[in-house]
Specification:
It is built from 25 helices and 2 strands. The protein is an all-alpha fold. The chain folds into 4 domains: 158 residues; 79 residues, no CATH class; 202 residues, no CATH class; 118 residues, Orthogonal Bundle (Helix Hairpins), CATH 1.10.287. The chain has a two-stranded antiparallel ribbon. Helix 2 crosses helix 4, helix 8 runs parallel beside helix 24 and helix 13 packs across helix 14. The longest helix is centred in the first third of the chain and has 48 residues. It is globular.
Length: 614
């Protein structure tokens, strides 16, 4: 007991000794970590974006190792100034374990002359394995930078920034940054870089998970450019705020009340308390689904597809899994999934369609359906059911998929143009069913195509317009007005026809606030599409109106399907689509809230007025 008291006394005196300079040291260290992180991001950008000579590569490696030393020392200093050491280690277990990993690597480098992990990679006795070590090292650096930016993002919670503005700003930064990177020489196959407008269009399409392209992704971009596109898709699908905050969740302070509010607003959760642990679940569930999707896609590739090697086959699998789950529609094939041989891989189509469907439903809905605790509760207590928002999203999506598939099947089987190569007329019955359901699922959210969209009949194009306009579910990675908005408006119309005073669904009453919101989204969205289409008809009068409308709705709903006119559009036409993709991704109401002034008071009511309707 005396020993414990003596140790406690020594610890108390030590804390009193370091306390006066603690705040200043930690603030300086925080600034230095952010500065070094930004500098290393610049170093990575230069390294991958421009041709490198041998000396520049050696300098880059030295910078990476120096940054590792800095971050290890930073962790040790923070640990030194921490009053409760054990609590700090437990709260920062991920960072601490990662720093120990880097420390062992550096120790082996200084004492043995080589990194122990490089020796492991060299033990694989292949040149590609040694190259993988270089990529592995830079991934470590990127992981550290992401954690530091995640911690820095916590400072946003202390600023009185409108969550809508913060949400919009995150996408603007992602788009502008992505466009700037795509303009670098090493991102394109010809080494010339991408022109500004096309780079902005591609970055917007990727960040807003749309999939419209002005160049052939498979041949125009280098491997680095294709990797950048899929990273933009992943960040855009997760939302940059959610992605950054996930890494901040490893810090000892976690995320604050204001940040919880931001998450609640943009992840479509119905209560503030339900956002607890949401970000970790979002990222972990996303990566798990994409991993299993990659494995299934890898196993379902047709053996006749001419992959150069197993590495390319793995990369294509990962790329299409991420693109499908995030409802992006980007593909590494020139003709998308309509590529010869690929369009006949029906089991592959089923896997991709499943990923699209899950991504379109969104993590909140998937969490409600698949979370082990929720499953256990529903098994123990049969009266417990899925949340109202989950049921609306799930059942509306299933109904729309079935209706869309049936219409597509019966319309396109009779379409004489579909008797051409790759058309519905030459497919087996199973192939026709899979194609019909695939296009019904993809049309609403993803933009993948296994048939020639340019040859679709006009009735099918019109149905596709409606399906794209409705889009995915709230909280999903797709666009459109959302299934919940469509369901609420439809139920409201039914209630009005039946003379009911309230809108009811599953023994719940839809509040007037939600009704106003649904009708506002519908009206604003329709207005954006109409205005954009009018402008497109002026800028590109040589293109038919149905094609312009289809292109605009596809852009606004972040779908990505096209009749093949995207690259033919004039520069002003491309700007219109860029604006449409951005507005469609952030949401018309989000944009309206960011631009409008807050009402001072709503605690009043004027006398009722009568207006003739109909």
């Amino acid at each position: 007991m005396p020993i414990n008291k003596a140790l406690a006394r020594i610890k108390e005196n030590f804390n009193l000794f370091i306390y006066p300079g603690r705040t200043k040291v930690l603030n300086v260290l925080r600034f230095l970590r952010l500065f070094v992180s930004s500098f290393m991001v610049g170093s990575l950008v230069y390294y991958y974006g421009f041709p490198q000579e041998e000396g520049a590569i050696a300098t880059h490696i030295i910078l990476i190792r120096s940054s590792f030393i800095f971050f290890i020392l930073s962790y040790v200093i923070r640990l030194f100034f921490e009053f409760e050491v054990i609590r700090f280690i437990k709260a920062n277990w991920f960072e601490g374990g990662f720093m120990l990993f880097l420390f062992l690597d550096l120790i082996s480098y200084f004492f043995v002359g080589q990194s122990i992990f490089k020796l492991i990679f060299e033990g694989l006795a292949t040149e590609s394995a040694i190259n993988i070590f270089g990529v592995f090292t830079q991934i470590c650096l990127l992981l550290i930078v992401l954690m530091e930016f995640g911690k820095a993002s916590q400072r946003l919670t202390y600023l009185k920034i409108n969550p809508s503005i913060l949400f919009i700003a995150s996408f603007l930064i992602l788009i502008v940054g992505g466009a700037s990177l795509l303009m670098m020489p090493e991102m394109t196959a010809d080494g010339q870089g991408m022109p500004f407008l096309n780079a902005l269009f591609t970055a917007t399409s990727a960040s807003c998970v749309t999939g419209l392209i002005v160049v052939d992704t498979a041949t125009y971009f280098s491997f680095k450019g294709i990797v950048l596109i899929i990273l933009l898709v992943q960040l855009g699908g997760l939302n940059i705020i959610s992605f950054a905050t996930f890494f901040a969740a490893f810090s000892k302070k976690g995320i604050g009340l204001r940040h919880h509010t931001i998450i609640k607003d943009f992840m479509s959760y119905d209560s503030l308390s339900s956002t607890h642990g949401l970000l970790k679940r979002v990222v972990i569930m996303t990566f798990v689904i994409e991993l299993f999707g990659s494995i299934l896609i890898f196993l379902t590739w047709d053996s006749r597809i001419p992959f150069e090697n197993t590495g390319q086959k793995i990369f294509y699998s990962v790329f299409h899994s991420i693109s499908a789950f995030n409802n992006a529609g980007f593909s590494t094939f020139s003709n998308g999934l309509f590529e010869p041989i690929v369009r006949e891989s029906y089991y592959l189509h089923v896997v991709v369609a499943g990923l699209i469907f899950m991504g379109g439903l969104g993590i909140p809905v998937l969490n409600d359906i698949l979370d082990p605790n929720n499953l256990r509760q529903r098994m123990l207590f049969p009266w417990k059911r899925l949340q109202l928002s989950t049921r609306i999203a799930l059942y509306t999506s299933i109904i729309l998929i079935i209706v869309g598939a049936l219409i597509f099947y019966f319309a396109e089987v009779q379409n004489p143009y579909q008797n051409s190569e790759g058309g519905m007329g030459e497919l087996s019955f199973f192939g026709q069913l899979v194609t019909s359901f695939f296009q019904s699922i993809s049309t609403r959210t993803a933009g993948f195509n296994t048939t020639n969209v340019a040859l679709l009949s006009t009735p099918v194009l019109l149905i596709f317009l409606l399906m794209m306009f409705i889009g995915a579910s709230s909280g999903g990675t797709g666009g459109g007005i959302k299934t919940s908005t469509f369901a609420v408006i439809f139920l409201s119309a039914i209630a009005t026809i039946r003379g009911k005073k309230f809108v009811e669904v599953y023994k719940h009453t839809i509040s007037s606030e939600l009704l106003y919101k649904a009708f506002s989204i519908f009206l604003f969205s329709l207005s954006v599409v109409f205005v954009a289409t009018v402008i497109l008809s002026i800028t590109d009068p040589n293109i038919s109106l149905i094609q312009l409308v289809f292109e605009e709705v596809s852009a606004f709903a972040t779908v990505g399907l096209s009749t093949g006119i995207t690259a033919q559009l004039s520069d002003p036409g491309k700007v219109v689509l860029i604006a449409s993709m951005f507005i469609g991704r952030v949401g018309v109401l989000t944009l309206a809230f960011a631009l409008s002034k807050k009402t001072i008071s709503t605690s009043y009511k004027y006398p009722d007025g009568y207006v003739m309707i109909g």
